[in-house]
Amino acid sequence: MMFRICTIIFLLQVTVLESLAGKINIAYLHPVPYSEYHPPQTQLIIRFHDLKPEELNNPESFLHITGNRSGSVEGTPVISSDGRTIIFNPDRSFIPGEIVTVHLRPEVRDDPMFFLDTMYTFSISSSIDTELPKSQTDEAVDVLPAFEDANPIILNGVSIPSNFPRVKITTNDNPDSGLIFINNWGSPYFMMILDNSGNPLWYQQVSDRRRDFKLQKDGRLTMLIRSGYGGGSHIALDSTYTVVDTFFYPAGYSIDEHELQVLPNGHYFLIVADRQRIDMSKLVEGGNPSATVLGNHVAEMDANDNCILIWRSWDHFNITDAIHEDLTAAFIDYVHMNAIEIDHDDQLLISSRFQNEVSKIDRETGEFIWRLGGVNNQFEWVNDDNHLAYQHDIRVLSNGHYTVFDNGNRRSPIFSRGLEFAVDTVAMTVTKIWEFREDPDIYAKYMGNTQRLPNGNTLINWAVSDAPKLTEVRPDGSKAFEMDFLKSYECYRVFRFPWKGKAAVPYLLAESREDHITLIFNKFGDPNVTGYNIYGGLQPASGQIIATATRPYIHLFNLPGPQYYYFRVTAIDDKQQESGFSNEIKTYVQTTPAGQNMVINGDFSIGFEFWEWKVDTLLAAATWHIDSTEILQINITDGGNNSNTIQLSYPNLRLVNGYSYLFEFDAYASGGRVFEAEVARRDEPYESYSKIGYTWLTEKKQHFTFPFVMKDPTDYLANIIFRAGNSTDDIYIDNVSLKEVATNIDHKDPLIASDYALYPNYPNPFNPFTTIRFSVPNTSHTTLTVYNLLGEQIKTLTNRIYPAGNYQLRFDASALSSGIYVCKMYAREINGQRLFSKTQKLILIR
Fold first, then answer.
1. pTM attached to this predicted model
2. What is the pLDDT of residues 445-464, one digit of tens each?
């Protein structure tokens, strides 16, 4: 019954709009008459067929707006850059739940007899939520993991950091010459332009998981961003890789990350979203009476960031048409719009994944032109029994055909493919022109794209982690190119474009090792660079040159820590001209000796400095503050349903494989409760290094001590994490400490050594254990490594910073065969230039 009522309301909206259009020549009107679920910030948009705003006798007053709660609403009319569309911006938001009445009173200047006084209403939502859940934490990263090798890798003149997502190319047979635009989904995140050898021509490490990196029709590069840049949703870069524009979405909505399309005239299209609370029990049997339903909408913005079209799913799609989705769930995504395209006739194409539909829409009126797929399909497939199944990435070709990436969900047999098809709107038929399926089939359950290339080949991105990110196939189905990441990354879309870029300034990254910082810098695309000036200091924007380099990287030793340093770089060309400054890097140098607290401000004596706070506001509510006794308090109103909803963390801690650590803190609670205290990996996949598990707190202050050995690979970005969700009892924390425990110290020896030394091992010969003793007179980065007589590395016994003293290590040679081995000690003084190197022979007899 409810479905029929919704249909009747929709038809009534169309009828009223058609009636109004017939009287006053309206092409487009927003909100649609008698429509629902509008945000309080709703703008009114009106566009006439053949009537320009300047032809109105009353352009400032032809709209009269009244809310049944807010009363008369004043505002400012704005004329779009298209010269036809009028946008009315109310001077205040509407009240949630109210009914808004719109009076249309246009008067035509040259026709005094033309006058209309009519009205309609629309409804403001009482439950709209535009805050979409984030799948990743958007945190900036100052210091990156350490190098595995001594120097950065240089690929075709470009230096790359150790965590750069390398690729593997398995086919390279005369592919298209366009460069590869790609990014990886997996921390750390990089935006990249690669050549056909997989070498980077440009890259940028970013703090959030971005997507949709491509060349637009206006010649600029765009990418989705998640924060910054004045609240925009995407940014544009010019050929110097300078951010030159930001793209905004309409007030009252949130950005949906799937697509941005920019037109040559400066207009642009975005997918936007909102969430409404809907009683689904009135629509489907067993429906949730308070379900959260996600709406997807297309917004066309003009060159001045004014919205001139909002095509809303609430007005055009039925929730119950998403027949493969669970409509009884608490959260329902019934559209999942994932692509926008402009057809050759300038009309709008959209792909709606969960409606199983590709739609063509009149940009002038917002009405459907045709609908392909799903329960509202208007076409017959003449030569393909598979049809579309949860498709992605609708695109129009120069011959008038269309391509999609057909994911294939809910199809039997299940498979994904790149598909080209033709639409006949006279015979109302669809013909499959071409497809590519891998053998054996690949199933990409989501994302992916298909791109027809200038050479006639087709690029297919399979998107998912266990499939290639770029397969380029010829019309006959043979492969010209295939590439994937070495690691199991996913990628939303991949493109090829012809592109020439030359950076205006260098791009700078920093990596930290135990005894030095390495700066990596490139002025991408500039063959005339001969060197670099490195500026740095303890304060931002330092004008002091601290070093120069002829290679695109430099190692900086002897930086006292722990403290932050600031660096930036300029490039020098063959005419000795200096470029502008690079981005500035804030880098934390941490040379904390064993036994010293690695946590700065562990007692909260300087407030929240160095600490990070995160609350999932969709599931929990909590605040943090520091009381007069300098104890951190976590005050919890709603703890949510798991411990992760409320987190206090301390980032950028260096944990070295094989080292011992001591994690300590004081804590108590307002009532008996559990919480989690861990030393863990910062990024996915989560890994607890301290292996503590749950901790029980009472109202009595307790001191907790947790020793552990770092058994995982060395991590320079580890976190201390306190998880406080799943309870409403407040938590109090103080005196947080993480120390490296000095190991292998022979306390029978003097604490201070007089000089560097590597002593003969004892026993020697040995089977299979022996003890190796050494001394360092000052704090030094020290390595002891065992080699065979061929010079092959057998085992690194230690690789860390030691304070002055005498030490001993136990070497277990159980896995080795009899023979002579060599132990080499290498030490570099941290606060000086002294170097020490010595070897000793080890004789193993089995």
1. 0.73
2. 999 999 999 999 999 999 99
